[in-house]
């Protein structure tokens, strides 16, 4: 064989063989090294896929919450409608019963209606309605009984009286000044002066607290001062009620007048002494050991003498407004300081 035949045979063999299959993605070995751009692209794809999952979950939860809220709203509306229907049914039933009772009473009286007598000292239905219409209030409320209507009238009348009293011209600072020569028992003018002066002190106290800086208000001491003022104002409510009713006890009346006189004269040390004399007084206080063994000490029987056991601070209400008076004195010496520094309380 010559060289040409051998070459032709080899070429024919090559043409008959199938081409080698292309490698699949699984067969491609992973790269040993990756570019920074490829890493960034893969990170971005992962981030976008995670965000897409989160958005879909968020939308699903929002839709579920909206459906639950709509169902809850429909349930509440159905409950309100049912309650309204039950109330209307109950009202109609009570009205039918009242009409049947009135008809039965009328039939029993031979066709003559009998008026229900009013309770002595209590206003009738017509009077209550007349008062309400004169005050510009609704004459009847849904589900309101006759007793509740009378209470509503009395409440409105009491509020109107309070507004009338508040509309009275207030006293000036010169008119608030007390004079012990003019102080008599159950004097209307003195009671007005006491109420006006304590009102002035509380108003100035509140104003001074409001004028503080915000940082001072939010501090621990600032909040404590605000609570102290609010507590004093609350505890002095019974005292103002005594001023309004003019029924303060004689011993309290005289001592409170003396305290106010000294405070208005800016003699705060003397006012504090009067407060201590009023609050502590001369009552016997057990100090130390009063009984050892079976024998009593010689001073113990004084605790049980007439007038010694009872003390003015034993009454909780009196104790509270007396302590509030002491707080008012402490504020007064900062709001209206005395000319003599020796008159400042410790």
TrEMBL record:
UniProt xrefs under SMART domains: SFM
Biased composition, class Basic and acidic residues, residue ranges: 35-94
Q: Which SUPFAM superfamilies match?
A: Functional domain of the splicing factor Prp18, PRP4-like
Classification via Pfam families: Prp18 (PF02840), PRP4 (PF08799)
- Tell me the compartments it is located in: Nucleus
Q: Does the keyword Nucleus apply?
A: yes
Q: Region Disordered: start and end of each range?
A: 1-94
Q: What InterPro entries does the record tag this protein with?
A: Prp18, PRP4-like, PRP4-like_sf, PRPF18
Record-annotated Pre-mRNA processing factor 4 (PRP4)-like domain positions: 123-176
> Which UniProt key words apply to this protein?
mRNA processing, mRNA splicing, Nucleus, Spliceosome
The entry's family comment says: Belongs to the PRP18 family.
UniProt-recorded name of the protein? Pre-mRNA-splicing factor 18
Which organism is the protein's source? Discina gigas
């Amino acid at each position: 064989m010559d060289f040409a035949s051998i070459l032709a045979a080899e070429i024919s063999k090559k043409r008959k063989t199938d081409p080698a299959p292309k490698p699949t993605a699984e067969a491609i070995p992973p790269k040993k090294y990756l570019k920074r751009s490829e890493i960034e692209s893969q990170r971005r794809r992962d981030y976008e896929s995670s965000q897409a999952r989160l958005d879909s979950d968020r939308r699903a939860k929002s839709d579920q919450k909206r459906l639950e809220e709509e169902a809850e709203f429909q349930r509440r509306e159905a409950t309100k409608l049912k309650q309204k229907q039950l109330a209307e049914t109950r009202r109609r039933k009570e009205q039918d019963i009242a009409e049947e009772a009135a008809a039965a009473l009328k039939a029993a009286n031979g066709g003559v209606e009998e008026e229900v007598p009013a309770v002595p000292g209590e206003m009738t239905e017509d009077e209550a309605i007349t008062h309400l219409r004169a005050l510009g209030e609704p004459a009847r409320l849904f589900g309101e009984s006759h007793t509740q209507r009378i209470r509503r009238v009395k409440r409105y009348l009491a509020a109107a009286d309070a507004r009338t009293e508040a509309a009275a011209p207030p006293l000036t600072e010169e008119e608030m000044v007390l004079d012990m020569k003019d102080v008599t028992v159950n004097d209307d003018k003195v009671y007005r002066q006491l109420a006006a002066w304590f009102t002035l002190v509380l108003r100035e106290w509140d104003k001074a607290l409001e004028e503080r800086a915000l940082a001072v208000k939010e501090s621990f001491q600032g909040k404590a001062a605000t609570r102290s003022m609010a507590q004093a104002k609350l505890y002095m409510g019974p005292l103002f009620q005594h001023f309004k009713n003019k029924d303060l006890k004689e011993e309290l009346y005289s001592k409170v007048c003396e305290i106010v006189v000294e405070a208005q004269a800016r003699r705060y040390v003397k006012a504090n002494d009067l407060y201590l004399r009023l609050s502590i007084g001369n009552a016997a206080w057990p100090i130390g050991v009063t009984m050892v063994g079976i024998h009593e000490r010689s001073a113990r029987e004084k605790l049980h003498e007439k007038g010694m056991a009872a003390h003015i601070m034993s009454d909780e209400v009196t104790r509270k407004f007396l302590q509030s008076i002491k707080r008012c004195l402490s504020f007064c010496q900062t709001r209206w300081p005395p000319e003599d520094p020796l008159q400042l309380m410790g």
